[in-house]
Structure formats: C-alpha cells, structure tokens
C-alpha cells in the first residue's frame, strides 16, 4: 500500500485500545463541531436567503446526527471495537473539516468579490470533495484493520450518506421553513 499522509496521521496517533484517547477525541470532536459551524455559517455569505445561525446549526446537527447513526452501524457492520470505530471516524471527520474550513474561505472570497451566482454549485462540489476524501480515508484506515473496502464503502453510502440526507432534509425544513 502506498505511503500517504493518512498513514502519517494514523501512525502518529497509534491507537492502543487498552487506553481510551479521550484528549485526542475531545480535540477531534472540537475540530468537527467548530469546522461544521464555521462552514455552515459561511453559507449565509453566499446564499442570500440563509441566516448564519440556522445554516451553522443545519450543517453541525445534520452531520452530527448522521455520524451518530453511522458509528454504531460501522461497529456492527465491521465487528471492530467501539474504540477503533470511533477513533477512525473522528480522524476522517477532521480530514473532511479541513476541506470545509477551506470552503468557508472560498465563500468569503466569493462574497468579497461579489461573485455568488455559482455559490451553490461550488459549495455542492466542496461537500462532495469532503465526503469523498473522508470515505477514501476511512476505507484505507479500515482496510489496514482487515475490513474489506466494499463493506466500508457500502456502509458509508447507505448509512452515513443515507441518514445524512434524511437529517439534512428534515433540519432544512425545521430551520428554514417549508
């Protein structure tokens, strides 16, 4: 398997399942929540009918709820330990948040340059890139633990993306009206 930045990150944070890495998890959760709130809030800069707080909650809650469904499904679908599933998930969330935080910068640039006509398309692409990056990263991490890539991708597509779509749609209507 080629050596990648993912291998560097995962080896730098080698997991000893006998010791819960609570400080690392707290930091990764903080990155996920802060990144989601920042990116969500930035949507109001380029999508003019969106409010900053509602958009931030939409992203953070929708993603958080989807991960809350996905991690138990990952545990039961792979038979890995809870610790391994949570740790791997939090690591890949951080990868996705790096992309979304850069998306907030893109949104700021779009607003600053008054070029928002393609903002929805650009943000859709940013979310797709973030999603793909996280899926590939998780697939590689779990393959190293013996999980077939097809199983990881299937769980990702059906459980995480499926529940995410349901949560995002429901929350959109709750936060923005019908």
Short description:
Helices cover 81% and strands 0% of the residues. It is built from six helices and no strands.
List keywords for this structure.
6 helices, mainly alpha, 178 residues, single chain
Give structural notes.
With 178 residues, the protein is mostly helical. 81% of the residues lie in helices and 0% in strands. It is built from six helices and no strands. α2 crosses α3. The longest helix has 31 residues, at 82-112. The radius of gyration is 17 Å and the shape is elongated. The protein starts with a helix and ends with a helix. The mean pLDDT is 91.
Strand content: under 5%
Largest sheet: none
DSSP E strands, number: 0
Secondary structure category:
mainly alpha
Give me the number of helical elements: 6
Euclidean distance between termini CA atoms: 48 Å
Helix fraction, binned, reads over 70%
Compute the gyration radius: what is it? 17 Å
Q: What secondary-structure arrangement, pairings included, does this model have?
A:
Layout: H1 5-12, H2 22-46, H3 52-78, H4 82-112, H5 119-143, H6 149-176
